[in-house]
Amino acid sequence: MRSEKTVAPIKPIDPMDPIDPMDLRLGARLAELRAQHGWSLGELAERSGVSRSTLSRAERAEISPTASLLNRLCGVYGRTMSQLLSEVEAEPALLVRAAEQPVWEDRASGFVRRSVSPPHTGLRGELVEGRLRAGADLAYDRPPVPGLEQHIWVLEGALDVTAQDTEHRLDAGDCLRLRVWGPTRFRCPGPDAVRYVLAVVLP
Known about the structure:
The chain is an alpha+beta fold. 25% of the residues lie in helices and 30% in strands. The chain has helices spanning 21-37, 41-48, 52-59, 67-77, 81-86; strands spanning 103-106, 111-117, 125-132, 137-140, 148-156, 159-163, 166-170, 175-180, 184-187, 194-201.
């Protein structure tokens, strides 16, 4: 019998806390995507490496999914994370006011992402502001889209980025440009948090 896998610690939602509307919309969208592909939870678990129980709880908004979990599902569904998150938001306007930029937090890893310029019909690029607390370590085992172009520009603090088995130390003002084909890792060495801009361009 195949053993089920998990991707990262997932923080259960406290039943005493109100459910985040974003988690509800995200769970419903994940369930919709699986139905569109005609996959059972077991089939999706095989394809993604995420356990059936975790997938089920995420679709029912019983857990708040991590960035690692969403990255695996994006890979299966052929989407970037920003595309997936944009699908549970209203259609973005050409002008995106600061107060209207969707913010999503992976509480387990200490990662906060602001979709500064969300995906838009006819555009290939997007801008994301990322924040990692000191000591935070965020790993992706695969790109959501092979060959995805990324430009990582550090605004404050320091960031260690590992890609193609090479680690790069980025300090404030530095920019790393790459195409992503395999695993990547983002780590904030501290002592302060890091804030950076991620420009993503579809191949």
